[in-house]
Design a protein that fits this description.
globular; alpha/beta; 5 strands; Rossmann fold; single chain; five-stranded parallel sheet
């Protein structure tokens, strides 16, 4: 379990892919102390190949850690209406008592929030980075994401 001042997060693949599409993966290390990735997310991002943008960076970052899921039954229940990555991400966040879940899937965000978990997608993450003075503009980055076919979700 993390101490009070440490920010621990769990991220889904779409969030990580979105940040790599706009070369902003480095922002994560500036906003969180530790980032956990569920095995299904790791498989979605890392196993397809190192030629994809950001894969080596995700693999080699010291603050990013693949972490196994303990409660497989909870994952299987969530997989009835969510994908494997989203399901494992939500269960891992509960198991690790994370401060926040970085996830863009709307259904997964709603489930997480109903469970009392705090969520943030790419757009909210970029806005937070701007508010903390880490980037100067959000809109150009969102425009690039949309041009590259990334589906942005604006949901509290």
């Amino acid at each position: 379990m993390a101490n009070q001042s440490e920010i621990i997060a769990v991220a889904d693949s779409s969030f990580l892919i979105g940040l790599t599409m706009i070369n902003q993966l480095d922002l994560i290390a500036k906003l969180v102390d530790k980032l956990y990735i569920a095995p299904a997310v790791w498989e979605e991002i890392i196993l397809p190949g190192e030629e994809k943008p950001g894969v080596n960076k995700i693999k080699n970052e010291k603050f990013i850690e693949k972490h196994l899921i303990q409660n497989r039954q909870a994952v299987e229940m969530l997989e009835v209406f969510l994908g494997a990555g989203e399901s494992e991400t939500l269960v891992l966040a509960q198991e690790m008592e994370c401060s926040i879940i970085f996830i863009d899937d709307l259904r997964a965000r709603k489930v997480a929030q109903k469970s009392g978990l705090r969520t943030m997608g790419v757009a909210g993450f970029l806005l937070t980075a701007k508010q903390k003075g880490l980037i100067t503009k959000v809109k150009p980055l969102l425009n690039i994401l949309q041009q590259k076919g990334f589906r942005l979700v604006f949901y509290q």
